[in-house]
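sorry for the late reply, my laptop died twice this morning and i had to redo everyting from scratch. anyway the thing you sent over, i finally got around to it. pasting the sequence first so we're on the same page, its 325 residues, then the predicted structure underneath. double check i copied it right bc i was rushing
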Amino acid sequence: MRTSTKEDSRRISFYSRDAPIAQSRPYIDCFAPTGRHATSKPVAGGGDTEDDGRVFRTDPEEAAFLLYARIAAYGFRRHSAYRAAAFAGAFTNTIFGILRAYVLIALWEARPGLAGYAIADAVTFCFLSQAFIGPMQVFGGGLELAGRIRTGDIAVDLVRPASLQLWGLADDLGRAGYLFLLRSLPPTVVGAALFGFVTPATPATWGFFAASCFLGVVVSFGWRYLTALSACWILDDRGTQSLSLVVTLFFSGMVLPLNLFPGWLGTVADALPWSAMVQVPADVYLGKRDALTALGFQAAWAAALLVMGALATRAARHKVVIQGG
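ok and here's the structure:
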């Protein structure tokens, strides 16, 4: 049977390759632009679709990539509906950035060269950390997972033919991309105009900084995902959310650069995952840390948190606490 799709798109159905079409497992479908009206139908044997007499080969890896790319795009569009909230957050971040900058200027004038930063470095770090608040979700939240666990909607998410964790990560990357544009750029531009800004000396540093920001978002998601998933085992996750807020603010470098922490406390704080959200990307931008070492550190923590999240998700399938009966 032939299926007609919408204009400028074709539906690709991804069936199991190792089973006849009549007995294939649940499939994922998505839309891919083609620039013309198309009709398609599955081809016996699985994994292919026939479009106007032509056969299109698809595979699970391509299917997964298209699915999560689509989810990321939807995440961007969904958060773009709240422009007023984003601009209000940008305004708040800018005002607090200005106040923090004057405090840091006074501190560095009293202690020149403190923590290896010049005054311009400290001011730049201040506004970079303000810019990271939205994309890195430093104050926590940003995920609907805990609420869906409380209502029982998580049961629907767990039976989808897609990874719950990767689904959430793709959506969170879309959210971070939108907030970077509307909530991160304004305080950075204002800070540069009022106080001056240190800029990377080479284009490679800009590339390393972009990669570091991306990994910082992944680390942030991994931590917030674990925090939200704790609602599967406890009746109220507000306690864990509050604890997460405190440790993230303190150990990320959001309050003060971790370079100011004395002795063993600074060493420990610099090795924890929260430093990958603020301190490490800022140091990469300022050239205070070897870029490849910094990216390796962030990638290691991102992988570790995602693995822990996958194991916790697997355990959550066997124990879900739903409030309200």
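The mean pLDDT is 81.
thats about all i looked at so far, will dig more tmrw
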